Amino acid sequence: MSLLRAVATVSGYTMISRITGFARDILIASILGTGPVADAFFIAFKFPNFFRRLTAEGALTVAFVPIFSRLLQTKGRDAALEFAEQVMSIMGISLFLFSFSVIIFMPTVMLGLAPGFAEQEWLFDLTVDLARITFIYLPPISLVALLGGILNSFGKFGAMASAPILLNIILIISLVLFENSMETKGHVLAIAVAISGLAQFIWLLEACRKNGCIPRLRRPSLNPQIIKLFKLMLPAAIGAGVVQINLLIDIILASTLSSGSISFLYFADRVNQLPLAIIGIAIGTALLPKLSREIQDGETHKAQKSQDYALEFGMILALPATIGLLVLSELIIIALFERGAFSVTSVDATAKALFYYALGLPAFVIIKVLQPSFFARYDTLTPVKIASSMVFVNLVLNIILMQYLEHAGLALATSISAWLNALLIGLILKRKRFHKPGKKTFIKIFKTFLASTVMGLGLLGILEFIDESIFSSGILSVATLVTLVVIGLILYIILVFLFRVIRISELNKEVKSWIENDQ
User: Are 118 and 124 in contact (CB under 8 A)?
Assistant: First the structure.
């Protein structure tokens, strides 16, 4: 499968996932608003996801996929699947014991995670209850990452990319049907999260069965490949842990600010995560197995071209998305969330957070695109060192900026840290001679920036002629947002071809290659 087609597959399902995710968040915003119950649920929801990114997406995937791909190429399907079965057995036991322990000691854990809630006993107790329920989600969703890594190595990206859709559908159904059936609406959502973890695990198991790569249960044992996996996972886990520490710091500091701050950051981050998931995560997911094969086969020139292509493609999508978020941040929040319990004050606060998060979007995409260069070479330590250096930077920036911008300062600190992270990754890749973008790549990115900037100026000009009273109507605000997005997209496409960022001949070549690979 070509890189473009793999990215399109992941991006397509991710788009559906994000659309259903927005429907979910719109419903949550309307019913819960940005009050204390919403803050409690979002902390409870984020908590198992911190560890999921630590144990699964952050460490397991980047260490597992290169080893599994190599075994698949050198020793065949059976040897690769046997390795996966050993990993699954060890993970399953470890995750169960860890989750059981955390659930028991959750009150102590919450004292560290949300110290600002300790002053309100009922809010603290509610957060503990919800977190205990949502933590059931961790074991199955971490195993989902393992099954997804197996499928991705076989070039099957659809099942893993579509799995989060189940989470969104289950949460939507639970709110619609059982909104007032429990102590709080937060309890309804927490139980739905736990159920969705099992649903996604079953979904991936069935996908593995259909593709003849389902891992069987076996007694866990250590062998050289498992030991190698753990050695690679350890620095990757530390690196993912460092990233999660930054996120935890944001939560801890936000809990000390005014009520709703956690919710403002959550909803803003959800909007910002849409282009990041569709672009950065999708490219990184598709690029890792491809780079692993090319590097292991000694095709370093081919790997360099793949990396350059991924970087160019990422910026062609990320830069206009960034400009669009900056220009339309307030309208986006109004159109998506301003209804029910989500007030005008919530709109202003969330839009500010979105604006500052959006400033770091290209950096996050660059990180996701460049990191596979390390992982494909079994170098999981270097990204850890880079991420570790950012913890102190992020903390200092948080403390300084929150004094002036409150919760929005936390978002700005995240973006600044991301740009420093991306810069360090690029410099170290160049020094290690793993990757140095070609002159053509820099020129193409600069032209993309110009096209995106002109598009943004065009949107600003149109906004000057729009009556602000339109924004007070839910339907009109949505219609206005859709219209502006379409206009911006059309303008950007024209500019991309006008500035020769993309040539018709290149586009025809990609389409022809796609069709040939599909036959």
Answer: yes
